[in-house]
UniProtKB/TrEMBL annotation:
One of its GO terms (molecular function) is DNA-binding transcription factor activity. Keywords: DNA-binding, Transcription, Transcription regulation. It comes from the Bacteria. This is LysR family transcriptional regulator. InterPro entries: HTH-type_LysR_regulators, LysR_HTH_N, LysR_subst-bd, WH-like_DNA-bd_sf, WH_DNA-bd_sf.
Length: 290
């Protein structure tokens, strides 16, 4: 068995296709098929099967997939540790990030990190909190950058706190208030932001026994902001998700002052690669959190 066979197998599973895997890896389809067959022959088990959903791993194939991911992770760590010993920083980091975090945090960290560590590639996936957690547990990504709330056994590294803000038109009757409570907005048409933010809001509404007048449930923050600008409804968003240029709108802190913690989630912080460790330190320093 070789690392190349592992890489080919993992790519076929990822893309659910021999053809797509061969295109991505630059091999002929027959070469990919032969490497999988050789791997199956050596292990004496069937690793893949075809279905309506494409090529998927068998039960034993799933178990072998987890082992292969662990081996490839160790390979990457060995390469990075050797490079670090020689005073170099190389490799790649796969990062999962949620939409309400990405808009204002990513621009602040990606450019400066690439400047300081040009040989470490950042591969970024934007998805829901649930998907990011799943990808980390399956070791398909190295780390998640999201809100820190009920991370189901994953390790956490806090980075910053993000105030929840009530966003409304500047002509709204509540626009002159210093802060706004959930009771204040209970009678107004409300847009519930979907994704990671609604988890916190639903908890807050339940705790205060306030029933909001939810008219819309939307995930994309730019769509939410556009609807608030039109006076369709008001909403609550994390401060990081609100652009600086919001002419015609007012954002007011939610009272009691609700803040969400933002940071990294990791499967096992004790086994992270040197490159990921440097990335975490870089982000913490960027947000003055040494």
């Amino acid at each position: 068995m070789t690392l190349l066979q592992y890489e080919v197998f993992m790519t076929v599973v990822e893309l659910k296709s021999f053809t797509k895997a061969s295109d991505k890896l630059g091999y002929t389809q027959s070469a990919v098929s032969q490497m999988i067959k050789s791997l199956e022959d050596e292990l004496q088990v069937k690793l893949l099967e075809r279905s309506r959903n494409g090529v998927t791993p068998t039960i034993i194939g799933e178990r072998m997939l987890r082992n292969m991911r662990e081996i490839m992770k160790l390979k990457k760590t060995m390469i990075q540790e050797a490079a670090s010993f020689n005073g170099l920083s190389i490799g790649s980091i796969k990062i999962g990030i949620t939409p309400s975090v990405s808009s204002n945090i990513l621009p602040k960290i990606v450019g400066t990190f690439r400047k300081n560590y040009p040989d470490i590639e950042l591969i970024i996936f934007e998805s829901t909190l649930t998907d990011v957690q799943k990808l980390i547990k399956n070791e398909e990504i190295d780390v998640g950058l999201t809100i820190l709330d009920q991370q189901d056994g994953l390790d956490q590294v806090p980075i910053l706190s993000d105030q929840l803000m009530v966003l409304l038109q500047e002509t709204h009757s509540l626009s002159s208030k210093e802060y706004v409570s959930l009771e204040d907005i209970s009678e107004s048409c409300f847009i519930m932001p979907k994704g990671d933010c609604d988890i916190l809001l639903k908890k807050a509404f339940n705790k205060t026994k306030v029933t909001p007048t939810i008219r819309y449930e939307i995930q994309d923050s730019s769509t939410i902001i556009a609807m608030v600008k039109e006076g369709i409804a008001l909403t609550i968003l994390p401060e990081l998700a609100i652009p600086k240029d919001t002419a015609g709108l007012v954002s007011i802190p939610l009272y009691p002052f609700k803040k969400r913690k933002v940071g990294f989630i990791i499967k096992d912080i004790q086994s992270i690669s040197p490159g990921l460790a440097e990335f975490i330190v870089h982000v913490k320093h960027t947000f003055n959190n040494p």
